[in-house]
Amino acid sequence: MTRTIVVSGGGTGIGKAVAARFASAGDRVVVVGRRPDVLGRAAEEVGATALPADLSDPAGAERLRAELADRFGSVDVLVNNAGGNVEIGDGAADGPEDTARRWTGNFRANVLTSVLPTEALRELFAPSARIVFVSSIAAYRGSGGGSYGPMKAALHPYIYDLAADLGPRGITVNAVAPGLIDDTEFFGGALDGTRHAELVAQTSTGRAGTPDDVAATVHWLASPGARHVTAQIVQVNGGAENGR
After folding, report:
1. Which of 140, 148, 158, 160 is an active site residue?
2. Of 62, 79, 127, 169, which residue is the least packed, with the fewest Cβ within 10 Å?
3. Which residue, among 161, 155, 164, has the nearest Cα to 115 in the 3D structure?
């Protein structure tokens, strides 16, 4: 049976790898993102449908709902991958106004981009649908200051409540929390070799993760084999959360 899979932030990195994983299994995949050109190229490459939308905006989430309802009628898997740290490369915060801008930016980028599409699609979720959020190791150990870690952590109680709410419909709700993942746009070129080596040294596996590592875990959480797994945060970080 062909499923309808929706992946936000599906134009690059982890989201693109997730989309490719589902598409290669024969699922119907819709990738969502703010950059139509990037999204279009990714969709063509992995065999998905591109649907440009800003999911931090209620209008964007509503547009997503309307388009999916019209084209497919229901959604089997939602992967809330869109996000990022707006503070990277932004220098030091200069007073309360600058701090408010940064925290609001990361709230929009990491909380609203997950909560708004999930709420918009509530009535479109098929029986036994799967919802998977992408959190971060920073939700457990911080991000070295700033608002990114707290915003990712804010998703966790929402996930627990959502799992309890949707469980009677056979829907599971989980998250993956990656550590350092190479080949993404997350750091925007701001991670130097020394810091990269430090982060790798914190793992037990001696390597950075890859987008495919995360995609494989997301794919399993959306599989029949994970039908009794819900309200869980699965860490994909090579043991780095425990540090060294």
Report:
1. 148
2. 127
3. 155
Total count of residues recorded for the chain: 244
* Contact status, residue 6 vs residue 75, Cβ threshold 8 Å: yes
DSSP state of 187: T
- Is residue 221 within 8 Å of residue 5, measured between CB atoms? no
CATH number of the domain residue 72 falls in = 3.40.50.720
Q: Print the domain residue range for 183.
A: 4-242
| Structural domain total, the chain | 1
Token pair of 217, please? 């875990």
Using left for φ > 0, alpha for ψ between -120 and 50, and beta otherwise, residue 83 falls in left
pLDDT tens digits for 161-218?
999 999 999 999 999 999 988 877 665 556 677 878 888 888 889 998 999 999 999 9
